[in-house]
Specification:
Shape: globular
Order of helices and strands: HEEHEEEEEEEHEEEEEEH
Radius of gyration: 16 Å
Distance between the termini: 36 Å
Helix content: 10-25%
């Protein structure tokens, strides 16, 4: 079966997703299929790898764990059964502090921190939908990294809604309420992830 063989108007579930073996990587957002952009974008890979490395090093010997794509994050709404879950994402980097959410297939429930690194393949519809499902699921912080433009937007969950920071630029330090004590110079980050 090929991705082109699927009916894009249909609503799919995680149970369907588990049966697919495409060359392309896909995500499900509210049952709709979204193709993940090309893996060959060097800036994207360097940035995601550097963020994962910095977070994983900080978290060594702590309860929280950092994960890097491909890593399925299932966001159940009513039930966590494979037939009921219709949102399955592969964030570039995520941090999960409740280890009971992790299983052999990834994460079942909202990570504490999700990081998406934009690449030319990302589109506005995908970004809006991810923002909404991460907010609805209760992801405490959602970072959107713009590697080509050298800035980061931090969305923090306050009373069930995201409050977005001003754009953080190279002169800023990136911190998170999820991981007290973690800080990262954006100048260092962008320089170390430069192709």
């Amino acid at each position: 079966m090929k991705l082109a063989d699927l009916d894009i108007a249909k609503i799919y579930a995680y149970a369907d997703y588990l049966t697919w073996h495409f060359e392309e990587r896909v995500e499900l957002i509210r049952g709709k299929i979204f193709k993940i952009g090309p893996e060959s974008n060097l800036a994207h890979q360097l940035m995601a790898g550097e963020l994962f490395r910095r977070l994983a090093n900080f978290l060594e010997k702590q309860e929280c764990r950092a994960f890097v794509a491909p890593f399925d994050v299932r966001l159940p709404r009513r039930s966590s059964s494979d037939q009921e879950v219709i949102t399955v994402l592969q964030p570039d980097v995520c941090v999960v502090c409740d280890r009971s959410k992790c299983d052999a297939r990834g994460c079942a429930g909202a990570p504490d921190l999700v990081i998406e690194v934009l690449s030319p393949g990302n589109n506005a519809k995908e970004l809006r939908n991810k923002f909404e499902v991460y907010e609805e699921a209760g992801v405490r912080e959602y970072w959107i990294v713009f590697p080509q433009d050298y800035y980061v937007l931090v969305n923090r969950l306050v009373d069930g809604k995201y409050v977005t920071s001003r754009p953080l630029v190279q002169e800023d330090m990136l911190t998170t309420e999820v991981l007290p004590g973690f800080s990262l110079s954006l100048k260092d980050l962008f320089e170390s992830a430069r192709p």
